[in-house]
Write a structure and sequence with these properties.
The structure holds two protein chains of two kinds.
Chain A (H helix, E strand, L loop, with lengths): L2 H8 L3 H5 L6 H24 L14 H24 E2 L20 H8 L1
Chain B lengths: L6 H11 L6 H19 L5 E8 L2 E8 L1 H20 L6 H18 L4 H20 L4 H32 L12 H13 L7 H6 L5 H9 L1 H12 L4 H19 L4 H22 L2 H32 L15 H14 L6 H15 L3 H27 L13 H19 L2 H4 L13 H23 L10 E2 L3 H45 L11 H20 L1
Antiparallel strand pairs in B: 1-2
Helix pairs in contact in B: 1-2, 1-4, 2-3, 3-4, 3-9, 3-13, 3-17, 4-5, 4-10, 5-6, 6-7, 7-10, 9-13, 10-12, 10-13, 11-12, 11-16, 12-13, 12-15, 12-16, 13-14, 13-15, 13-17, 14-16, 14-17, 15-16, 15-17, 16-19
Classes of the chains: A mainly alpha, B mainly alpha.
């Protein structure tokens, strides 16, 4: 571990240091595996538990999981397509919008420090 | 008779008195007492209309207490308290006064028993709230505020038109359930729809809230749109059209939110989506559905303000709310991260969090009515909520790529305000009976059944798994600085551009016509001049003999023509 990283970690709150294990590719892979295992366990309950439903389609095993997965992916891909159509530079509306203005004016700490200076 | 005519008076009185308190700390404490004081005005009153009077043969009522107004009064009071506490560090009196006036107007509107009182407070919310945008004091904020004000005041003017027409038609100003049968009720409906951000009338929301100050956006997120939900629930329960409007509202913002870089605008789109659920509930109009709308509005105010507060705290410390500039902030602001995650879990309707026990009432009501397609849209929209508010906001702010920003944790008062909201988000999720007991209509509902919990967890965890895989394989859209066009492009760009082109065309045509006319006039004058000018033939001095000769010629020709 480099000196800079050590110094960086020393300045972090205790709670943040406890969560540092989430950094790094191995941890991310581990998190994905855990989520996958939770999904598998939840899907498994469909075989054990007969649910009360309002519509016939809900009785299909694994339908909720499948639906959540597919719909999520479709939303993301559709949104990516939408971005191609509607994305413009940040200053598109020029001075008539706050988009390209400094956000300090919205009452951030930096703005207050400037005010007090 | 209550001590105050309406709880709004407590806020208005507070707003008048607060600026004269010199000590900042005392002023803040004084402001915090106002929502508590206003709550005591109506909380223990038996149901009925108070402060009622006749004026010019019209019946007014400033304080109608029933279960519907009481629960909205309660959540608005709580939201006002949290907003004021969150803004403890703000020394700008303009924001302090307008926050009180805005919250007071919203609460005043909730307790209005007649349409004129409703109109007065309706416009009051518009006028007071715009200062929370202008308080940024930049040219962009000024223009955004003007757009916001025009639309909000427009809503009020349409409401007033509707009120007048309704009074002419029925002879009553009472604010009760109406049917879409006359031009008056349609006007009132549209006025409510503008404030409720119906599709194509929604852009003021995404335009203005991200332009407000850090604390102003928290306040704005609680009142205006939920007042509109209250007004629709009171005025148009069971209006079928609302089911379809609401369904569209839940669906379209999720795509815009997914690609939006400004996190406060993501939350504004998310408000739109959440309002959709409530509007569907009003449209279904059964006791269960209406209870669902009220419960969802209650929970939504809490988790939405919690999310706005956490993003606001990040903005306060880092100076930005743009996802492209953030990331890895759990290392600096772990408590804010935890509160943000609580808000995210609540809005995503994870079991044991508030959204789970409120949104499911609306979905169950839709399913119970056999509205399969509406139910399906709401389930799809629920996945969309998870995408933008459940995952995107906390992930890109506190995790993802480390932006390298190392800042202090949020100030204590912000943490306390977030803590209060988070406490209610979890409290309602764990013990929903406390909320259900306050709901206005008789309908029983049990949220925690095995089927419901399991199906909801399946939906959410599989969607989370999809996100994890998309991120892992680099398929999730990256965040970058941009402006995304929405319908407001029509009135911010297309119409002004069209107007300019038409004006340009009219101007050029006018110039062309004028030049042509002047040219012709010039030519004519030249001709006249040639004929009559000093050198013109008609101006010459002709000898009398030649004139006689010409007269003789003329007479001769006349003679010939006569005999021909």
């Amino acid at each position: 571990m480099t000196e800079t990283r050590k110094k960086d970690q020393a300045t972090m709150p205790l709670l943040a240091r406890l969560l540092l294990w989430t950094d790094g590719p191995r941890a991310i892979l581990g998190i994905i595996v855990v989520i996958g295992l939770i999904c598998a366990a939840l899907a498994g309950t469909d075989l054990l538990h007969h649910r009360h439903v309002n519509f016939d389609v809900e009785e299909t095993p694994f339908i909720y999981g499948l639906f959540g997965f597919v719909v999520y992916a479709v939303i993301v891909f559709l949104a990516k397509g939408l971005r191609r159509l509607i994305s413009r530079p940040e200053d598109y509306y020029g001075p008539h919008a706050t988009d390209s203005e400094s956000e300090f004016a919205a009452g951030t700490e930096q703005a207050q420090e400037t005010d007090h200076a | 008779m209550p001590e105050f005519l309406t709880p709004a008076l407590a806020y208005i009185g507070g707003a008048v008195f607060a600026p004269f308190i010199v000590s900042e700390r005392l002023r803040q404490i004084f402001m915090l007492t106002i929502p508590v004081l206003a709550l005591t005005v109506f909380w223990n009153l038996p149901e009925g209309t108070y402060a009622a009077f006749n004026y010019m043969n019209m019946h007014f009522g400033l304080l109608r207490v029933d279960k519907l107004s009481r629960i909205f009064g309660l959540i608005f009071s709580l939201a006002a308290f949290i907003s004021i506490l969150y803004a403890w560090h703000v020394k700008d009196k303009l924001q302090q006064i307008t926050t009180l006036l805005y919250a007071g107007a919203a609460i005043g509107a909730v307790f209005a028993a007649d349409l004129v009182t409703l109109f007065v407070f309706w416009e009051g919310t518009a006028l007071a709230s715009v200062f929370l945008i202008w308080a940024r004091r930049t040219p962009g904020a000024y223009h955004t505020g003007m757009r916001y004000l025009i639309i909000q005041i427009g809503s009020g003017v349409i409401l007033l038109t509707g009120v007048v027409l309704q009074y002419q038609a029925t002879g009553s100003l009472a604010f009760n359930a109406m049917k879409l049968e006359s031009s008056g009720t349609w006007a009132i409906f549209i006025a409510f729809g503008i404030k409720c951000a119906f599709p194509l009338l929604h852009n003021w929301l995404q335009d203005s809230y991200p332009a407000a100050t850090v604390t102003g956006a928290v306040t704005l997120s609680s009142f205006t749109t939920k007042l509109a939900i209250y007004a629709l629930a009171r005025g148009f329960p069971g209006t079928e059209l609302l089911i379809y409007i609401g369904a569209v509202m839940t669906l379209f913002p999720i795509f815009f939110a997914a690609i939006e870089n400004n996190l406060r605008r993501v939350l504004a789109y998310s408000i739109n989506n959440q309002l959709g659920f409530m509007v569907v509930g009003i449209g279904i109009g059964t006791p269960l559905a209406l209870n669902g709308t009220v419960a969802h509005a209650f929970c939504h105010i809490l988790y939405k303000s919690l999310l706005f507060m956490s993003v606001g705290a990040v903005m306060y410390r880092t100076g930005t709310s743009k996802a492209s500039e953030l990331g890895g902030l759990y290392k600096s602001m772990p408590l804010t991260m935890i509160f943000c995650v609580i808000g995210a879990l609540s809005i995503s309707a994870f079991p044991l969090f508030s959204g789970f026990v409120s949104k499911s009432l609306i979905l169950s009501a839709a399913a119970g009515q056999g509205q399969f397609w509406i139910w399906l849209v709401l389930v799809i929209a629920s996945v969309g909520v998870l995408e933008h508010s459940g995952i995107k906001i906390p992930f890109f702010t506190f995790f993802a790529h480390d932006s390298g920003k190392r800042v202090q944790e949020a100030p204590t008062h912000m943490l306390v305000a977030m803590g209060i909201a988070a406490f209610f988000c979890i409290g309602i999720g764990v013990y929903p009976q406390a909320l259900y007991a306050m709901l206005p209509y008789d309908a029983s509902y049990v949220p925690y059944t095995t089927s419901h919990v399991v199906t909801q967890l399946q939906l959410l965890f599989f969607a989370l798994f999809a996100f994890a895989l998309l991120m892992r394989f680099g398929l999730y859209p990256p965040e970058f600085r941009s402006t995304n066009l929405d319908f407001d492009w029509v009135y911010r760009r297309a119409l002004p551009s069209l107007t300019r082109r038409v004006a340009d065309l009219v101007e050029r045509t006018w110039h062309g016509v004028t030049r042509l006319a002047l040219y012709r006039l010039d030519r004519f004058l030249v001709l006249i001049y040639r004929a009559h000018g000093p050198q013109g033939p008609l101006a010459r001095t002709w000898p009398t003999g030649s004139m006689v000769l010409w007269i003789a010629v003329l007479l001769g020709m006349t003679l010939i023509l006569t005999y021909l």
